[in-house]
C-alpha cells in the first residue's frame, strides 16, 4: 500500500498533521478556533444589541459630537483653548494634562524612590529607620486620601492672594497656588526645543558610534561628555543666534488674583505630589530589592580595588541591579499613569474629568468611556513599549 493511501486511512496530511481529536495539536487548534469564534460572536451580539437599543430610544451614536462646540471652560490647558472650541479639542486638553502629570510624576517618583530605596540600606541607623517609616506609612495610606492631604496643605495653610508670600523676587505663594516668572513669548524658545530634540538624537548616535569604535579598536571615547555637550550646546547656540532674549513675564497682583507669569495650581500640585510620593514608596522597595539581589561579592571586589562606597554603588551595584529593577518598575509607572484618574476628586481637569463633563452634556456615554479607555490604553502601552525596549537594552547577552 502506498504512503499516500496510508496517510489517507490514518486521516493525516502528507505533512504529518492528523485531523483527529485524539491528536493534541489538532485538538488545540480546534479549541482556539472555537474560543475565538465565541468571543467574536459575543462581541457582535453586545455591539448590535447596544446599537439597536440606542436607536430605539433615539439616542445619538458615533463620534460626530467631537466636532461640536464644547461650551465649557477648562482652568488649566497646555494648548490654547476656549469654550467655543470643539469637544475634540477639549479631549486633547485632557489628554495633555494627564500626560503632564504622568511624565513629571514618574520623574519625581523615580528620583525620590531611588534615594529612599538606597537609604533603607544605609549603615546609618537613623537614615535607614526614617526611610523604612516612610515606606511603611505611605504605602498603607490610600492615594485618594493623600491627594486630599496635599490639597489641604495648599488651600488651608497658605495665605489669601492679597497676603501672598513672596519668598523670592517674582515668586508668590497663596491659596491659589504658586506664581512664578517665565520667559516672555519669543520664537526662539520653539527653535530651542527643536534643537534639544536634535541634540538628543545626535547624542544617541554618538554613543552608538563610540561603542562600535571601542569594540573595533579598543580605544575609548568620552561619549558621555560629548553627548552632554551636544544636548546643551545646540539649544544654547540657537538661543545666542536668536538674540539671547532675557525679558521675563513677571506675575503682578491685579484685583483678586495675579496676572502674568506661570501658575502652579493647588490641584496640579496636589495630584502631582500625592501620586509621586505614593508611587515613590513602592519604587523604593523595588530599588532596595534590586540592590539586595546583587551578589555581595561584587561589592567586596569593588572595595578590594579601593573604590569608595559611592562609586561602588553607582558603577558596580546599580548597573547590575537595573536588570532586576526595571520589570517591576514598569508596573509602578503604569500604576501612576492610571491613578491620574483620581484627579477628578480634587478638581484637576484631567482626561476623566473633561470626559465626564462631555458625557453629561452630550449624553453619549459609550463613546466617552471608549475614548477614556482608548487614551489610557495608548498611554499604558507606550510606557510598556519603552520600558520593554530599555529592559532588552540592558539585558545580559550570552555569547
Q: Determine the N-to-C terminus distance.
A: 50 Å
- The low-pLDDT segments are 5-11
Structural Rg: 28 Å
Structural class: alpha+beta
The biggest beta sheet reads:
4 strands, antiparallel
Q: What is the number of domains?
A: 2
Number of strands: 8
* CATH top-level class of the largest domain: Mainly Alpha
Helix content: 55-70%
CATH fold annotation of the largest domain: MetI-like fold
Task: Please tell me the overall pLDDT.
Answer: 87
Question: Could you tell me the strand content as a percent range?
Answer: 5-15%
Please tally the helical runs, counting DSSP H or I stretches of 4 or more residues.
12
Shape: globular
**Mind telling me which CATH architecture of the largest domain this is?**
Orthogonal Bundle
SSE pattern: HHHHHEEEEHHEEEEHHHHH
Strand order of the largest sheet: 1-2-3-8
Description:
By secondary structure, this protein is α+β, with helices and mostly antiparallel strands. It folds into two domains: 3-56, no CATH class; 87-184 and 247-394, MetI-like fold (Orthogonal Bundle). The chain is built from twelve helices and eight strands. The strands form three sheets. The chain has a four-stranded antiparallel sheet. A two-stranded antiparallel ribbon has the order 4-5. Strand 6 (252-254) and strand 7 (257-259) form a beta hairpin. Helix 5 (143-157) packs across helix 8 (266-293) and helix 11 packs antiparallel against helix 12 (365-394). The longest helix is centred in the N-terminal third of the chain and has 33 residues, at 24-56. The radius of gyration is 28 Å and the shape is globular.
Amino acid at each position: 500500500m502506498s504512503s499516500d493511501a496510508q496517510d489517507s486511512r490514518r486521516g493525516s496530511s502528507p505533512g504529518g498533521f492528523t485531523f483527529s481529536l485524539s491528536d493534541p495539536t489538532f485538538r488545540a487548534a480546534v479549541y482556539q478556533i472555537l474560543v475565538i469564534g465565541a468571543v467574536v460572536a459575543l462581541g457582535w451580539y453586545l455591539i448590535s444589541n447596544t446599537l439597536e437599543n440606542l436607536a430605539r430610544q433615539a439616542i445619538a451614536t458615533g463620534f460626530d459630537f467631537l466636532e461640536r462646540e464644547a461650551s465649557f471652560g477648562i482652568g488649566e490647558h497646555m494648548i490654547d483653548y476656549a469654550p467655543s472650541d470643539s469637544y475634540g479639542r477639549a479631549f486633547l486638553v485632557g489628554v495633555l494634562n494627564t500626560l503632564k502629570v504622568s511624565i513629571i510624576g514618574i520623574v519625581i517618583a523615580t528620583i525620590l524612590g531611588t534615594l529612599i530605596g538606597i537609604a533603607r540600606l544605609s549603615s546609618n541607623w537613623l537614615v535607614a529607620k526614617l526611610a523604612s517609616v516612610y515606606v511603611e506609612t505611605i504605602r498603607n495610606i490610600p492615594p485618594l486620601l493623600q491627594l486630599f492631604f496635599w490639597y489641604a496643605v495648599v488651600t488651608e495653610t497658605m495665605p489669601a492672594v492679597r497676603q501672598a508670600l513672596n519668598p523670592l523676587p517674582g515668586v508668590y505663594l497663596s491659596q491659589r497656588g504658586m506664581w512664578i516668572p517665565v520667559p516672555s513669548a519669543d520664537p526662539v524658545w520653539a527653535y530651542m526645543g527643536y534643537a534639544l530634540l536634535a541634540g538628543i538624537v545626535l547624542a544617541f548616535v554618538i554613543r552608538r558610534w563610540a561603542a562600535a569604535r571601542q569594540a573595533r579598536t579598543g580605544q575609548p571615547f568620552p561619549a558621555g561628555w560629548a553627548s552632554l555637550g551636544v544636548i546643551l550646546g545646540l539649544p544654547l547656540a540657537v538661543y545666542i543666534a536668536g538674540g539671547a532674549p532675557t525679558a521675563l513675564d513677571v506675575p503682578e497682583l491685579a484685583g483678586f488674583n495675579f496676572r502674568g507669569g506661570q501658575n502652579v495650581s493647588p490641584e496640579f500640585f496636589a495630584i502631582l505630589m500625592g501620586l509621586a510620593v505614593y508611587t515613590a514608596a513602592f519604587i523604593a522597595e523595588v530599588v532596595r530589592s534590586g540592590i539586595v539581589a546583587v551578589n555581595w561579592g561584587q561589592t567586596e571586589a569593588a572595595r578590594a580595588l579601593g573604590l569608595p562606597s559611592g562609586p561602588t554603588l553607582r558603577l558596580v551595584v546599580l548597573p547590575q541591579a537595573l536588570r532586576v529593577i526595571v520589570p517591576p518598575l514598569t508596573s509602578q509607572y503604569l500604576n501612576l499613569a492610571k491613578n491620574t484618574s483620581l484627579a477628578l476628586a480634587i478638581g484637576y481637569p484631567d482626561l476623566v474629568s473633561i470626559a465626564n463633563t462631555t458625557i453629561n452634556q452630550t449624553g453619549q456615554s459609550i463613546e466617552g468611556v471608549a475614548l477614556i479607555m482608548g487614551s489610557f490604553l495608548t498611554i499604558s502601552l507606550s510606557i510598556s513599549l519603552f520600558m520593554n525596549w530599555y529592559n532588552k537594552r540592558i539585558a545580559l547577552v550570552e555569547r
